[in-house]
Every structure is written in C-alpha cells, then in structure tokens.
Protein 1
Amino acid sequence: MIKWGILGTGKIAGKFAEDFRFVKNAELIAVGSRTEQSAVSFAKKYHIDKHYSSYELLAQDPEIDAIYISTPHNLHYENTLLCLNHGKSVLCEKPAAVNCHELKEMTTLAKTKGLFFMEAMWTWFLPPVITAQQWIREGRLGKVELIKADFGFRAPYEPEKRLFNPALAGGALLDVGIYPIAFSLLFAGADVQHVEVRSSKAPTGVDMTDIYHLTFSNGVLADLSCSLGHSFTNDAYIYGSEGYIQLPIFWKSREAILKRYDNEEPLIFKDPRASEGYNFETDEVNQILLSHKTESSIMPPSKSLELLSVMDRIREQTDLKYPFEV
Ligand SMILES: NC(=O)c1ccc[n+]([C@@H]2O[C@H](COP(=O)([O-])OP(=O)(O)OC[C@H]3O[C@@H](n4cnc5c(N)ncnc54)[C@H](OP(=O)(O)O)[C@@H]3O)[C@@H](O)[C@H]2O)c1
C-alpha cells in the first residue's frame, strides 16, 4: 500500500483527491498547505486524516511514500527538491519545471537519492489515448504523417492570478500549450527537429495565444496551437497514410475514433470510466513504487526533458522570459 500526501490545495488538487477513490493499492493520508485553514478544510472535504500548515511539515511526515505537487509552475522546482530531500517520491503537476535547467537539477537529485519522479502528464495514461496507440501498433492507420491538436479556452483576465502572472510562470504555453506538444511527441515517436512559432502576448507579457509547427526527424509534421483568450475545439487528430484518428477534447479524452480512407466501418472506442481520469497516472506511480523501480517507462524524466526542451525553444522564439529566470 503506497501512502500519499498532497502538496497545495488548489483546483487540481481537489480533482486529484476526488479521483483517489478509483486508485488501487494506495491511501491518501495527508495534505499540506501554506495555511492551516486551507489544510483543515481540504482534509475535511476529502476525508484525509492528517493536515499540515506548511509544505515542509508535510514533507517531513515519515509515513508518506509519495507526494503529489499541485502548486503554480514557478514552485514545482523548489517543492520537488523539498520532497526529494525528505526521501519522498514525487508526482509533479505539469509542466514538471519551468525550464530544462530546473528539470535537470530535479531529476539529478531524484537519481542520486534513488527516488521516483514523474510529471503528471495524465493524458498519456487515459484509455482512449492508449487505444489510439494500440490501433497504430496494429497498423490500422498506416504510417503516421501529421498530427493536429489544440487547447484553448477563454480565461478571465486576472493579472495577479496563476494564468497571467509572469512571477508564477503563467501564459498559454506552460499552462495548456504543453498538452498539444506532449500529444505530438507521443504519436510522432521521433525527435523534434524544427520549431516555428507565432505568438501574441497578454498585457502582463506572458503569451496569450501561440500557433506552433513542429517537424520531427522522421518527417512527421505537427500543427499545434493554444490560447488563454479563445475557445478552441480542443480535439486532436493523428493522420496516417491509411486514415485518421480523432480524439475529441483530447487532453481529457473519453473517446477515440478511427476512420480509414478505404471507407471501412469506423472504429469507435468509448471510455466508460466513472472517474475524471486522474487515477490512471496515480496507478502508474503505485505500480512502479511497488515494483521498486524509480522511473515510469511511459513518462520517464527523459520524456519530460524532451517536452520542456521544445517549450524552451518556443519561448526563445517568442522572447518570453520569466522574471526569476536569469
Ligand atoms: N492535470 C490537469 O488537468 C491540470 C488542470 C489544472 C491545472 N493543472 C496544473 O496544476 C498546477 C496547479 O494548478 P491549479 O489550477 O490547481 O492552481 P490553483 O487553483 O491556483 O492552486 C494552486 C495552489 O498552489 C498553492 N500555492 C502556493 N503558492 C502559491 C502562490 N504564490 N499563488 C497561488 N497559489 C499558490 C496554493 O495552495 P495552498 O494555499 O494550499 O498552499 C494554491 O491553492 C499547475 O501546475 C497547473 O498547470 C493541471
């Protein structure tokens, strides 16, 4: 039985806790917050035994095996180091860090300490995404040639809050743009060679909308976009030589559809899950910890580094540096 703690009591922490009832071989035993009040009310709402009024106290709990970090992007680095330094395995919200420099330090520490670290790229563990991968392995799509994906929604413009605040590493790319990139990396199955970006900025200086094209070393193309100013379809498509796969609202997908160009009956997979889907990434962590390994083969730190290096390249092209970056 793996014993878990949650660090941070925001929106996604609530969803993670809510889905915990679907998780196997694990128990959610503690929560830590910057404030006593938040810790107490979160613990009460999700029936968690222990609550701590600081992240430090949570990390010090000797009963905890793994900590889920759900704080703003700028804090993933320091929160992860804190947990690893107290001997805890870490599942850290996306993006795993703000830049490759931070991530390299985090993963080096995890390796040195022999501890598990994984970015919470939950989409990669969802059954429709796994089904699409299976269809491709079975040759039903032919050769993968093009990937299209977008993630955009109209966020209320609140300059002080996480999404638009440069001090909290806000902006569309790190918040939602990471999903189309991760999706294309998963299905292209090769290194990114070229990155081309067009971007618009919010008044705070973070990116509002990004349109980016990737070319992979095997010739696969990706046409991706993200926005905090506009609602997109949020669908993803994988086009192959024999047909295409559609994943409606791909980042939380519940369905995969395969349409072949030879007019064969479409294949449809509908996920009957009762959860939001956050339990699958947690199951992955538990399985790995129970088998005494330190890396997921699906989302190892090297994949997070690949993902973040694309995001670093995009930010270089759009001249977006956060105030705490030298
Ligand atoms: N996987 C997904 O579907 C998904 C969805 C949304 C967000 N996310 C990711 O999850 C992380 C958190 O997002 P969220 O939407 O849950 O954010 P949120 O609602 O703003 O919560 C963030 C939490 O972090 C803590 N925190 C520490 N320092 C903070 C500061 N200076 N300002 C604000 N909060 C601070 C707070 O918890 P305490 O007060 O308890 O310390 C706060 O409740 C981000 O990395 C985001 O990209 C993932």
Note: The mean pLDDT is 97.
Protein 2
Amino acid sequence: MDQENTQNPNNPQKKMIVGWFSFTCSEDSTILFTELLNDHLDEWKKVVEFRYLKALKSKNSMEGLDVAFVEGAISSDKQAEEVKKIRDNAKYVVAIGACACTGMPSASRNAFVSDQINERICMYMKNFNYSDKVKKLDEVIKVDDMVNGCPMNIQTFLETLEKYLKLFNII
Ligand code: SF4
C-alpha cells in the first residue's frame, strides 16, 4: 500500500486525512486494522488519505491530520513528546484499544512494588529511558474519542470512522 494518497485533480472527492500511530503495546489493533483493509481498502481509499501509517507505508507525514488514531500506552518522556506532537498536528485524536484507553494491560508494571523490581527490570527501564509510570493516553493529551477493547472493538472502530467521515462532510 505504498502509494501517495495526494488528491487526484481528476477526482475532486474530498478525503479525510488520517494518521495511525502505535506506542507501548502489542500492536494487535494495528493487525486488526490491516485485516479490515482486506475488506474495506477500495471503499476507504476513495474517502480517506492515510497520511501516516508506518505499518504499511514507507513515506509518512503527520502534518495536517484530521484524525489521529493512537494505539498503546505512553511509557516514556520521549513517547509523551511524540504524542503531544501528534495532538498538535491533528484536529481529533481517537484512543485505540485498552492500552491507550485505560493504560492496561501495558500499565501492569505500575503495580509492581519495589521488591518486585529486579535488576533486569531496572536495566530495561534505564536502557530504554522508561518513565516510572505507564500512562493512558488521556493522562498525556486531550482525547476526543475512545475505541476500547483488547484488541479494539471492530464495530466501535467502524462506527467511529464513520462518525468522523460524516463530521468532515465526506460521506
Ligand atoms: S489493548 Fe490489548 S491488544 Fe491492544 S495493544 Fe494493548 S494489549 Fe495489545
């Protein structure tokens, strides 16, 4: 799907500009999303420009997004900075999957007590500059919508996508 989705001058159809981002998670919602493309790509590419979708494209930009879908919890200062940049570039942000919506299960380590934090865990935390606490998305940025589920609930995702396509007067 490595195609430039710039608007075709012969096709004045307006498109919703979308980004799909993953942070600390197992990326199962990304896998589900790519599975959905098997059935919906032809329909979606008429109305959606996938401007940032690293799982499927090599050229990506987060400039001027209408909707950013963000999967995963935020587990480092670097990730917090990145997601704030996404927020600054998107009119709407939708949290995707339980890790983004609630923090869990990615935030399980927040419940560790100090004698459970062994040398190996300390080494990982230090090497990857992880924060002390893993955060759900709305602890770091404003979130406009949530698609809960582990992985995301497909029906809710489809309804949310449709909601924004209508909001932008595209369908
Ligand atoms: S919500 Fe579940 S499926 Fe999604 S990233 Fe987290 S652990 Fe994986």
Note: The longest strand covers residues 16-22.
Protein 3
Amino acid sequence: MPELYKMLNDSSAEVRVQLALQLSAQPGADAMKAVLTLLKKGGSPLLNDAITSGLRGRELEFLQALLAEPAGKTDTLVTSGLVQVLANCITTERKAARVSGLLEVVAAQAPNSPRQLALLNGMAGTPLDKKAKAQPRKLLYLEAQPAALTALSTKLAGNKAAKTLLTTVDKALAWPGKPGVPPPPVVKPLTADQQAQFEKGKLIYAGLCAACHQPGGTGLEGLAPPVVDSEWVTGPVDRPARIIMHGLSGPVTVSGRTWHLEMPPLPHLTDDDIANVLTYMRREWDHTASPVSAKEINAIRTANAGRTKAWTADDLKTPLKPAAKEAPKAASR
Ligand code: HEC
C-alpha cells in the first residue's frame, strides 16, 4: 500500500486512473483520502469510471465519506462529475434500502447547493454528456414513503430547476399507498432448493458470464449485450439454454438495440449448471421469470443433440419441437 500512496504525485493520467481503480477497491479512510487527492489533481470521466468499478457495491458509503469533506471554492467532487456518477450508480443498482439511504444523503445537503443538485441529477439519471438522452428509470418499490423525499419537496419548493429534478426522481419511486401507482408484481417465492440453485447460478454467472456480460449484467459496447431486462433471458427458457449450449451468431436485438457479435458455445456446462445460471439470471436484477430445472434443460439438450452450429436469433424464435420429432433431423445436420 505505501508504494501506492507514493505514486499519488505522478502526473500521468494513465497512472492516476490505475491508482484510482486500486485505491477505491480498498476499504478505509486512507484510501478514500487518497482518491480525493487524485481528484484534486483533475477529474475525468475515465477516473470516475475507475473509481466506480473499484467501489462496486460500496458507492453509498464512499459518497457519504466524500460529502463529509468541506466543499471549498471549487468543489472538485461536483465539477469532476463524481458525485453525480455515484448517485447514478446507487440508483441504477435498484436496492430499495440503498436508494432510501441516498435520499437521506440528498436531504442532508444544503438546499439547492451544487452538491445537492449533482446528487439529484444522478438520481434522475441525467447523462453527464449534455448531448445524450436521459433513459427513463423503471419504477422502484420502496418499503415505505421516504421521509427524506417529503422533506426535500418542502425545502426545494421555491427552486424550479431543483423541483423539476425532484419530480423526475419521485416519478421513478413507488411505495405502498402512493396514489396512481400500480401494485408491485406478485412473484412466487423460490423454494429452498430453487434458492440454492440461484446461489450456485450466481457463482457461475460471476465466474463465466460476467467477463463479457459484465458483473451488473449491463453488457459492454463491442463485447456483449446486456442481460438485464433482456427478453432473451426472461422469455422462453429454450432460447437462452440453446445460446449457452451452441453459441449465438449476430445480429441479435436486445431491448430494442441490435448487436452484431458472436457468443461462443459453452459446451462444458452441465444441465445443472445451465439450470442454475438461468434460475439466477431470471430472478436477479428485478426479473420475475420462472426458475429452471435441470430436467427442462436436459429435454432441450436432447432435442438439439448433434447440433454444432451457433444459433441465429431467427432460429431461436422458431419454437423448439419435442425431442422425439426433432431427433432424426438434428442427427443429420
Ligand atoms: C466471450 C464472451 C461471452 C461469454 C463468456 C458469455 N457471453 Fe452471452 N453473449 C455474448 C455475445 C457477444 C452475445 C451476442 C451475440 C450476437 O450478437 O448475436 C451474447 C448473447 C447472450 C444472450 C442473448 C442476448 C442477451 O443479451 O440477452 C444471452 C441470454 C447470453 N448471452 C447468456 C450468457 C450466459 C448465461 C453466459 C454464461 C454462462 C454467457 N452468455 C457468457 C458473449 C458472451
């Protein structure tokens, strides 16, 4: 660690990005202070990306620690975009308790201050790039009406811009009894066995799929499409199962965007592995699709025995025929 701290004065932008990545992955106040030192030497979108990847899952705690620092004349935390980026990350993660916690942080800032506006912009999903279009957020169900939100709307009543942002934030949140909000979807809870499958599937996802589809399931430009809110993940099970067994050859449209890539087959995964990883992906990220059994996967495998070619999206949309009818055809391919 001390070697890392010595490098803080390195003026090269690349070194600073590398340092930010490593330092933000360390818990503790020293690492946080060091990240702050880096920011003071000049922030950049790359530096912010490095910090958020290092933090993954600890953004709220880090943000709280950062905001305890006095703002000073030019507030690097705001001007570098970091505060907005972190608030956006926390909101995008869609964990009700964390989002409620973030609202409290917003309410604790001086009304209409640059920090408060940056936080609200992050929560509202305002892109840092002024030319980009804001993506509307999906409704997130909180356990109860957040007191911080009510307090904010009183405090910001006189500030038009802040009030507009707050309205955007409010629109994406729901709680029991909020007028005009549909009740949350009723999801059949997983049985203990299915929950065990989910946990095993989570490990497979992290160890294998995340390399391309990214740990948060968001996909990455030029590498792989998102699996969050993907109709291929939450739709008929035979589609993702066949993609995993035999691969997928682009183009493929996912949530309205077309990708021209190739996914290699993963033939070493067993029926259990595939059932587990799909059970995980169909329930993580607010997905509410049914869990998957190894038996279902085995039937899909049998129906496609002998297949070596990767699927195309069009192939996959043709419903899978029962094993008995499909077998001879599959064998002759
Ligand atoms: C080497 C990178 C790579 C790995 C590893 C990988 N994928 Fe993919 N995956 C891709 C690419 C690239 C596509 C899109 C191919 C195309 O354009 O047709 C894709 C497409 C998909 C799709 C359909 C489109 C979508 O985004 O929903 C699913 C579902 C999917 N992969 C699931 C998985 C699962 C589950 C795993 C792990 C068991 C996995 N992938 C591992 C690269 C990968």
Note: The chain has two domains: 2-174, 192-332.
Protein 4
Amino acid sequence: MRLRTRFTVIMLIVYLVSLPVIAMGSYFVLKNNAIKEILEEANLMLAAMEGVRGYTGQVLRPALQKLLPGKFVIEGMSATKVAYGVQLRMRKKLPRYSFKEATENPLNLVNKADGFEMKKLNQFRQGILKTEWRGFKETPDGRYYVIMRPVSVKAACLKCHGNPNAAPPEVVKRYGTKHGYGWKVGEIVTVNSVYVPAEVPIQNARRALITFTAIYSGIFLFVLFVIDRLIIGNIIRPIESFVSTAEDISRGKMSREFEVTTNDEMKSLADAFTRMKISLAKAMDILKKR
Ligand code: HEC
C-alpha cells in the first residue's frame, strides 16, 4: 500500500473506532443530564403542589374558618381542590405537566385513579412499594416521568370521607353520597402523582449528540485533509523528486541536483544524496582515468 493510502486508512480506522466510543460516552453524559433535568422538574412540580396543599391547610382554611365558622367552602378550604385548580392553570402554560391525587374511591371523579395509578396504589397497599415510586410511563401522547406518594387516611379525614350522613352538607350537595365515602383510618386511599413530560430533554440530548458527532466528524475530516496535504508536500513530493533525480543520475545525468525547499530531515537526506553523488562522480572519474 502506498504511504499516503496507508496513512489515510490508519486515520480512517482511528476515526471509525473513536467515533462510537466518543458518541456513546457523550450520549451517556447527555442522557444523564437530561434525566437529571427531568427529575429536577418533577421535584419542582411536586414541591409546588405540596406547597399549595400545605398553604391551603395551614393558612387559607383556618383563616376562612375564622370568618365563616361552621361553613365548608370547598374552593378555599379543600387542599385537594386548590392544588387541582392551581395545576389546571399551570397546564395552560405547561400543557403536559400535571398533578393528580389519584384515588380509588374519590368524592370528585376527576381524581379517580386510572389503571396505571390503581396498579401503583395496590402495590403501595401490598407493601411492594414503600414511601415513593418514581419512574417513566409511556402514553399515547408521549413519555412521562412520574413521582407517586401514597396518602393514608387519618381519623380527622372521616369527617368528610367517612359516613356520608355525617359529612358537611356542602360536600354531600356537591358530590352526592355515592362515592368518596367509607374510607378507613390507616388505609392507603390515594397516590399523589406528579407527571412531567420526559421526552423533550432526551430529544434535546439526542439532537446535541448528532450535532456533536457532526462537528467531531467535520474536525476529523479537516485534520485528515490537512495532514494529507502536509504528507504530500513534505514527504511524498520530495521523495518522488529524489527518486526521479536518483534515476537520472544512475543513468549518467550527473548534472541533476537533489532539491528540497525545506530545512528539515529531507534537507539532510538531500545533502547526503548530494555528497554520495559527488563521491560517485569522483569514483567514476578515477575509474575513467585508469
Ligand atoms: C372538611 C371536609 C374534608 C376533610 C376533613 C377532608 N377532606 Fe379530602 N376532600 C374533601 C373534598 C370536598 C374533596 C373534593 C375536592 C375536589 O373537588 O377536588 C376532597 C378530596 C380529597 C381527595 C381527592 C379524591 C377525592 O375524594 O376527590 C383526597 C385524596 C383527599 N380528599 C384526602 C383527604 C385526607 C387524606 C384527609 C385527611 C387528612 C381529608 N381528605 C380530609 C373534603 C375533605
């Protein structure tokens, strides 16, 4: 194989071996960052919703109760209602972010657990899952990252979620008496679930990987091109010129000179060849004179 071809092939092999290693390495890093980003978003969403629930229970409800003793204003006193309303408004800007108090037997049917949530709810009940579940969920409108936390019933909850006959009239009037009651103390009734879209950061990571690979390939090809030019100019051309000069000299054209324009190893080689040519010429002269 010619020098230039050999060098190009070696460089291409280096490229082909390094490309998957670099691509896989950077995909790993990018994907990890994307997942970290998704986790942070989900944590943020969960913290916001828990903040809303906490504020409603600790500040809003007592303040309203003081003003309206004995009354139950669902819109302002139910942490569930407030959190649901807040996330509904958030979704106008962030359509695929949501929070749901997914419940097997809810007062408000918007909180009814779907098949996936029921499965997780039952796993919490059976103790297969403990305090939290985090993971991905595939749906027809894309992939979500989900955090779920179980909620168990306390004695105070039964005031509204126990016997419908004992529930505040506002609750019975709004939701009827058919569902949302009969909860038992200690029973896990709900999984508070946060959903955040998971494919956007991963798609961004993929896109970044494609750009990165393209840039790497571009730089590699450019370097390959530059090195190729350098090899041609600095090694191959001088060698070809030496070969043709040496051939001419071997055929007796002693006037030919070994020429180089650079001042490097090629120059030393040319000088050595020139000295050899001079010695040869002298030797031939001596031979001729005999
Ligand atoms: C004063 C009445 C009242 C009390 C006490 C109460 N809730 Fe509720 N709860 C409601 C109402 C009203 C809703 C429906 C809100 C809505 O429309 O989203 C609700 C909804 C829920 C939901 C969503 C599922 C559903 O039924 O729609 C969960 C979960 C829940 N409550 C848990 C609890 C827990 C846990 C406690 C005790 C720590 C509790 N609630 C105490 C009134 C109450």
Note: The chain has two domains: 7-205, 206-289.
